[in-house]
Amino acid sequence: MSIGVAIPKPAGFRVWVIRVTELLELSPYQWSVGSGIGQNALSKFINGKQRDLRLETASLLVEHAQGIAQERGITLPALPAGIAGQSFCSSPIKVA
Mind listing the domains of the chain with CATH numbers? Predict the structure, then answer.
């Protein structure tokens, strides 16, 4: 069953983030502050000091990058394939 959404794994998202910092010529600090996240969060993620990011943090980063790219007429690379279509649990979820 596909849920229609691809959530990238942290390693793939890290590669995408590094590529986008190069394309948009943004420092991790500039991107973090512009996205409204902690000043060092993105640097720690890029450098591997932080293994992953919260989904909300990743969403803020993507939205901010898309806005900058649109202003500058730059096409961002697609987000890496993720876990879409994988089963999240072995049995159906029962709703009371």
Answer: 1-96 (1.10.260.40)
